[in-house]
Design a protein that fits this description.
Helices cover 0% and strands 44% of the residues. It is mainly β. The protein has one domain: 5 Propeller (Tachylectin-2, Chain A). The strands form five sheets. Strands 17, 18, 19, 20 and 21 form a five-stranded antiparallel beta sheet that branches. Strands 1-2-3-4 form a four-stranded antiparallel beta sheet, with no helix packed on it. A four-stranded antiparallel beta sheet has the order 5-6-7-8, with no helix packed on it. 43% of the residues are buried.
């Protein structure tokens, strides 16, 4: 188990997460074998496993190899899952966004067998630049804008490459009025100082907006930012930015990657993410128990009175 995302319905928390069989042996093989698992909880600590939510698509479809990280929103009586799809033809090199719906968070049906959003080379790096390049376009985070009433999708993307040094990661952006038809727009900011901004999320804490993302230590390009493989937060002026990447800092919960921030019963923001390595350094593949966070004067999030991130009882 690794990346995860969450929704709450009638007091029940639903965790959706990437999973792959341990019989693969090498954990690096998990990305080409990922499907979306599902568990439920009333306290974010004790979980009951449900049937898997979604697996790979049919042969020839854009997601026929594996499905990756996404997010879920509700509109009227329908739940909408937006996820990342990767195909057999290009393996995991080219990534695109897919859409599935459910009446109950249990049974999911694909809306289309083609992607609903792909990287636009006017603003984003694509495989068309060179055959060896990746086309990052993944981890959709969807929310409804208060000001315009539109649905917004934040996407892990990259600026077009201009030299051999590589391009920084960017916050890809798409908008929709109905959750079914999406228009890709220019990125929300540039020159992030990170080679990639994975598993994006934006939320409001104590009246201030915060961008949550993760990156490896090797992804940090800005010398003023602490380089650590971790979940990061950065202050934001609003849900669509501008994002103050130069003030980004890692959450001091060592070993927790692809973290998501949600609310516990007390209304406190808590971090849940996957544990990269156990005490012996082997891939752990579990999701931590919730870690309580607080807003700092810097406008970032750091642990408050949370428990140790890796305990027995984590899902």
């Amino acid at each position: 188990m690794w990346d995860s995302w969450y929704v709450e319905d009638a007091g029940v928390h639903h965790a959706f997460y990437l999973k792959a069989p341990t019989s693969l042996g090498d954990p690096d093989l998990r990305h080409a074998n990922a499907r979306i698992g599902h568990s439920v909880s009333t306290d974010l600590t004790t979980w009951t496993t449900m049937p898997d939510a979604l697996g790979a698509g049919a042969d020839g479809d854009f997601d026929d190899l594996a499905v990756w990280t996404g997010s879920i929103v509700r509109s009227e009586d329908t739940w909408h899952l937006f996820y990342t799809g990767v195909e057999k033809r290009s393996r995991t090199r080219i990534q695109r966004i897919g859409h599935a719906t459910s009446p109950d968070l249990i049974v999911w049906d694909r809306v289309l067998t083609v992607p609903i959003a792909t990287a636009d080379d006017r603003w984003y790096s694509t495989a068309a630049e060179a055959p060896e390049f990746d086309e990052p376009w993944r981890d959709p985070w969807v929310f409804r804008g208060d000001a315009d009433g539109l649905w917004h999708m934040l996407i892990t993307a990259r600026e077009p490459r201009t030299d051999d040094a590589g391009a920084p990661g960017s916050v890809g952006h798409a908008v929709s009025s109905d959750l079914r038809n999406w228009a890709v727009t220019a990125p929300l900011g540039s020159a992030s100082g990170f080679r990639q901004l994975e598993v994006l999320q934006v939320l409001e804490v104590e009246g201030r907006h915060v961008l949550v993302f993760c990156a490896a230590a090797s992804d940090v390009m800005n010398e003023v930012i602490e380089a650590r493989t971790a979940t990061y937060t950065a202050p934001a002026d609003g849900p669509l930015g501008p994002f103050q990447f130069d003030r980004a800092e890692p959450i001091t919960a060592p070993g927790i990657y692809a973290g998501r921030v949600l609310r516990n019963k007390a209304g406190d923001p808590v971090l849940l993410g996957f544990v990269e390595a156990d005490a012996e350094g082997a891939f752990a593949g579990v999701i931590c128990d919730p870690i309580v966070l607080g807003l700092t004067e810097r406008g970032t999030l750091q642990p408050g009175s949370g428990r140790h991130p890796y305990q027995e009882g984590g899902e």
